[in-house]
Amino acid sequence: MNIGPDEFYKEITLRICGSLNIEQALSQTLEYLQQFLLVDGIGFIYSDLARKRLFIIASIGREGFNTFGHETGAEINMDDEYVQISEEIEFDRENISIINSPDNLPAGMLHAFPKLATRSALSLKLRIRDQMIGYFVVAAEGLNRYSEKDAKLLESVREPFAIAMSNVRRYDEQVRMKNMLAENYRALSDDIKQTSGFDVVGADFGLRDVMEKVRQVASSNSPTLLLGETGTGKEVIANTIHMLSPRQKGPMITLQCGAVPEALLGSELFGHEKGAFTGAFQRKRGRFERAEGGTLFLDEIGELSLEAQVKLLRVLQEKQFERVGGTKKFEADVRVIAATNRDLGKMVSEGTFREDLWYRINVLPIHIPPLRMRREDILSLVQYFITRKAREMNLPSIPQVDNYSLERLKAYNWPGNVRELQNIVERALILSKGDNLIFPELDNSTISQERTSTLLKPKKLPTMDQVVANHISTVLNHTGGRIEGDHGAAKILRMNPSTLRFRMKKLGIKSKEIPKLH
Question: Is the pTM of this model over 0.70?
Answer without folding.
Answer: no
